[in-house]
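User: My advisor, Dr. K., asked me to get a structural model of this assembly before our group meeting. I'm new to this, so sorry if the format is off. These are the inputs:
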Amino acid sequence: MSVPATVAERWLAAAAAAYGGLIAEHAATWRDPFRNPIGHTLRRNLAALVREFFGAMDEASIDAAFAEIMALRSIQDLSVERAVGFVFTLRDIAREQAPQMQGVDADGRIDRLALSAFRQYLACRERLAELKLNEQLRAIGVARRRAAHSRGAPA
Amino acid sequence: MADKPAIDIELKAPKGDWRDARVEFRKGTFSNASPPKDLVHLGLPNPRKWQPTDLDWQLPPDWKRILLEGMKDRLARYRSFRLFMDVCVRCGACADKCHFYLGSGDPKNMPFARAELIRSVYRRYFTLSGRLFGSLAGARELTEDVVKEWFYYFYQCTECRRCSIYCPFGIDTAEITMIVRELLSLIGVSTHWITEPAGNCYRVGNHLGIAPHAFKDSLEFARDELRDITGLDIEIPINRKGAEVLFVMPSADYFATPHYYTLLGYMMLFHEIGLDFTVSAYASEGGNFGLFHSNDLMKRLNAKIYAEAKRLGVKWILGGECGHMWRVLHQYMDTMNGPADFLEMPVSPVTGTRFENAASTKMVHVCEFTADLLYHGKIKLDPSRNDEYVVTYHDSCNPARGMGLLEEPRYVLRRACNHFHEMPAKTIREYTFCCGSGAGLGNDENMEMRLRGGFPRANAVRHVREEHGVNLLACICAIDKATLPTLMDYWVPGVQVAGVHELLGNALVMTGEKQRATNLRGEPLAKEEVHA
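Assistant: The format is fine. Below is the predicted structure of the whole assembly, which you can bring to the meeting.
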């Protein structure tokens, strides 16, 4: 297994561990995306993040991967610390698995990953309020449509 | 480095004892309690102001006796309940089948573990081994914490029955949930989002509490909009005695979006085939939130459908797109409020098809009815009017698993749309994943829990969005239409939600219609899609 692949697997295990024993095993090891959607989402996006960590650190790609991970973790029974904190476990994993990175500012890269994770976590929490509002508006959708119709405005 | 994956996970059981009943009610993960007025409207016990976050739930002084006697009574009355309490061997076949477990990772959401929350009490009070050996025999005392735990977890089950498909013993965990909710209702523990619509339905006729004049206004508005879209005057008869067919739909169809576009689709279809039908301002609700509360409440709310069919003198009943409505109509109505011996075997007036599957209930699903019309070539469709949509289909749990309605909606969709793709096999048909908001969980205070429960469904939609560019999720359940848009906006942005008959209405070529400039949502058709 390549170094990035090993790092990704170790990081996945750390991320899954936040859920507790039983689910951690399930989330990290079962590869069927439909029997194990949590593990599938973590696996594919952590692999993308590891590629960036060892590569170009493209901000858009990092944000996209954390957007999917944080969509999940921000609505689960995880405190903010547990939802986001796993990012920092990459420090020890990288030091152990990729000591050759010493020439690169690995800590700086991990800080940038962590900032993206926090940004996406907050964005997900903000979206919840928007979702609730839109759902309420749809619940009275016909009344709103009638009001718009009587004003001659598009519904 | 060896090829072996370097996963190093501590394999240990979750912290603490599973029998520890204490739960934390975190904002966003539970439904609000029923306020006193709901319980008063319905004549239910123990009306008072309380919330699940309160330390004291103000249970009746003899709450324990009420629950245990309630269990005893139901164990005697329902052989299935007794069987489900006894036969589970904890094989784990159901463990990873529950959408709430898959989306939350909470072990108590594994169906056998959730059921164990009441089985442990059953053992303690109703089995010799439990009475003698207590916790050694997997028994637990019934405490206030257990009541709170029941409330927390049995209001996380959407009664979707996916787990029951996998159970080698055929245990229907949804029925266990139904019994526990019914027991809780005996001591005044229920949720506002269930008892308010039920109360509205009982007093006014529909969940949303829409009075008859507003019901009529809504349908007249639909008539106006249909005139704008098609150029045809499409009448929607209300309370018309002597009609051949009574049409019953969920109230969201005439008040909420995107449900409303489905209503437009039905009415266009009925006009085109000249169906002799009526809707009713009294039976103005097909849905039945009593199902999520107790058998008695379900029966009370359901009674108006047959009563109104009798009063109006119709021959049979046609039902709209809804989920749990069909669970009640298909599985319970006949024995609760039947026999409907004053009605006739449903026969399509257009094709002559006898719906023998509905010989007992006398009620036909609109998708069965429409699929039959299409099969006999009685209506003409132009699917290119739906070309902006790349469609997939979500099997709503109750019509799919509750009544086996798997082919008919697909038969309609494949003819109304040019671009249709199925989600992966183990996520559709009888294996369908629930929306995560059924059985009375679809309220906004419970949003985070709903998003967890809906994640497996959304994950499958995301798969077909990435594979095929799917941008529309079709379904035939009113709760789906209310809550899947939220689920999609969160997990798979860019995917809209529509009813099957909305897409049918878009495609339906009507006699004498004007050139269509818009779809049923009033959105302009692309120029090349404008059809005479």
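One thing worth pointing out at the meeting: The first helix of chain B runs from residue 36 to 42.

User: Perfect, thanks a lot.
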